[in-house]
Amino acid sequence: MESLPIDMNNPAVREYLALTRLQVLTPLSLVINIASTLICGIIVKPSIGGVSRLRPTAISPNAPSIGVYIIILYIMQIGYCVLLVLARKQETKKALTKAVGHSLVFGNFIMAIWAITWIMQWFLVSTILQGLLLLFLLYSNIALLIYHPPVSSRPFDTALIHAPLRFFFILPFMLLFPLNLFITLGFVHDPTLPGSDPSYSAWHVWPVFGVVLGTNLLGLIVVVLRRDIVWTVAATWICISIWSLRPKPAPVYFTVIACTALHPLALFSAEVYYRLRKRRAIVLEGNDDHPGLYRHQTEQERRRRENERGPREVNDETIWS
């Protein structure tokens, strides 16, 4: 068979082929993810929400609330797939192929398999899958922020690449991975059953409290430093989904309620501080001798005086100094 009449080592050809593969694999992985989630969440009994109710933990969420979160995530990914086809700018193509690449494809396949392992109650396998998902999405988000940061000149990149990847990452980071891990470790208890300990001691409250507090504090740091509205919305949503399902131990319950208010407040405070600082930075002092204002005029005056004075005499002692 004769070789193809194209240079496979050409960077432009390789980029085109990489983008073409993503245009096929990303929608396919999304369809498989949606199909698996729908079947495991609606048709199969016990469903995804049913298993969550069978194994209550201190951070078990309200299933309908998380279901709406996932539906919005699917809609955002559909926008990402549209951008894959319509992308024309070179920076956008590089962000799609090099920063995100196959991480989102693997993420969708992992979520599809995770839904099956969850309803089968293979919690150790589901925890490992959520850990892999977290690593893939963490890599893509870091690569996007470092090499392809969001800029105002490319709003579609921000809305259709950065936002879906960030929204997807926060789900396993703040909820799914800790939830699977706690169930695997046996931090499960139903205080509504007769004879149950009302102190929630079987839930191992303080380790769970530490994880919830730590993830939310890290999220608050990101919100303050980057003024990240996507992280604010996603983290607030997950906090609401956790405290809206009761009963909950008091340390966890009050922590997620407090973080529900703190995330929007942190975003608002960071935005106000940034705008005030920016406004203060562009105000110049009313000093007539300010060198930045009159440097050009001073330079012209100096040259005029030198021309009037004529050429300077060369000093043998200072010419080589």
From TrEMBL:
Residues 292-321 are annotated as: Disordered. Residues 292-315 have a biased composition (Basic and acidic residues). The keyword Endoplasmic reticulum does not apply. The chain crosses the membrane at residues 24-46, 66-87, 99-116, 122-147, 167-188, 200-222, 229-246, 252-274. This is Uncharacterized protein. InterPro entries: DUF1774_fun (IPR013920). Coiled coil: none annotated. Keywords: Membrane, Transmembrane, Transmembrane helix. It comes from Leucocoprinus birnbaumii.
